[in-house]
């Protein structure tokens, strides 16, 4: 009897995987969503792999198989961004046509420290993995949060207000958000649009997400340390922004942009003014041949004006580095969440996408393979970005 019932259950679940849902949930047949709770309880997730095809329900093994085919995806099970799609479009703010704050940026750049970054990332990659559901995924978030609090404590409290917060999710790993703003501006009741600099904190072993070893040094420990070093440089350099800056470390990017979708949806619900969001995901791998070392400029899922401005900063503050335009693909990182919600977003990458790090999503994505001079280039761009956008 139990076997017969299990057989019926498996047949029912199998029918879920064959159910393709309309790309626009606002016009979807309500019956297609009627069993969402039971599907989630059975381990199914609603996965989208294209803007032109409807999402489908998939099991974890089916989702992990997408890594083998290099198929990028977005997990739309919780309908976070879809739930705010009818909200008013976010306000747009002027993005500089060209850099004008080099005199402020340049004195900050010598503060960048490769030894500091190496020490930081060595600890961050020492957790068995940073998978969003695993105990060490929570522990690594706790460590990151403590590190952010430590930097915040160094700020000149007469000039800077630095707030470190946890953005909780319905899984154990939380997103970490650090807000930096002028004490004088806050006292005067000023606020202004937020400049966001982001990375994702989680890692994954595509063969065994929960229990496998996944140092995630490049993906995305490198982006995480890039924006952390940017935060440290600004605090240590006593930079006081005119408008707020936020540093975001998203949870669960590797699970289909889960953390960033929830953060962005919350910002849209609360009508938070965002001037621009700049994502850094993988900044530490490049060709061993210096003549082939480039920085990739994403051409899709970005705001053209903001992306062009970030490209100008890349060239200005890394004179010997070439850039190359490269397509990122569907749902390739958390900037896509901002773009889908109507906010201007930018994204740089360590190489052309077709030449990206072959070690990611495995136990071999280790800190000893990081090219720190390459990471430093991205920190220089990130420092320039936050200064130019918030001055």
UniProtKB/TrEMBL annotation:
E.C. designation(s): 3.4.-.-
One GO term of the biological process aspect: proteolysis
Database matches in PANTHER family: AMINOPEPTIDASE YDR415C-RELATED, METALLOPEPTIDASE M28 FAMILY MEMBER
Protein name: Peptide hydrolase
Source organism, top-level taxon: Eukaryota
Keyword vocabulary terms for this entry: Aminopeptidase, Hydrolase, Metal-binding, Protease, Signal, Zinc
Organism phylogeny: Eukaryota, Fungi, Fungi incertae sedis, Chytridiomycota, Chytridiomycota incertae sedis
Keyword Hydrolase among UniProt keywords: yes
Sequence similarity: Belongs to the peptidase M28 family. M28E subfamily.
Pfam families in alphabetical order: Peptidase_M28
Signal peptide region: 1-22
A molecular function (GO) term: metalloexopeptidase activity
Domain Peptidase M28: 186-385
Cofactor needs: Zn(2+)
